[in-house]
Predict the 3D structure of the following.
Amino acid sequence: MNDIPDLLERFRRGAELIAAITTGAAGSELDFVSAPGKWSVRQIVSHLADSEIVGRDRFSRVIAEDNPTIVAYDQDAWATKLGYTTRKFSQMLETFRRMRGENHELLKVQSGDTWLRTGIHSERGAVSLYELLGIYTEHAEKHARQIRAARDAYKASRAK
């Protein structure tokens, strides 16, 4: 757990990474889907916004409660039933950035044994605050790669 400062910095930069990787994306590029089952840039950013809101609840519960239940959610059902294809892109990006910033402020002041506190995830089992930080850090980075791939596929489809 000596890597917490580095992990926190990667976590914080996740919002900047998503903002940078989506700079200039607009119009049909936001809604381009490269293959069945893939998400568009708009859907990915909507998912990130919702996920970061859920993350705040998870972080808070693990910090404040003893062995809280952390409920999994069906990301595909959320994408479909919460209208990820029609959400306003700029609002979703700003929600993600704001929530990531707030979550960073909450997490950066934690210390010592707080990182060992656990919650019981309904699918993963016991998960510590430290592990949640890693999961959420990697989450934005993974989706940044997906956004880059979606934008590259869009550009390739336009070049044909």
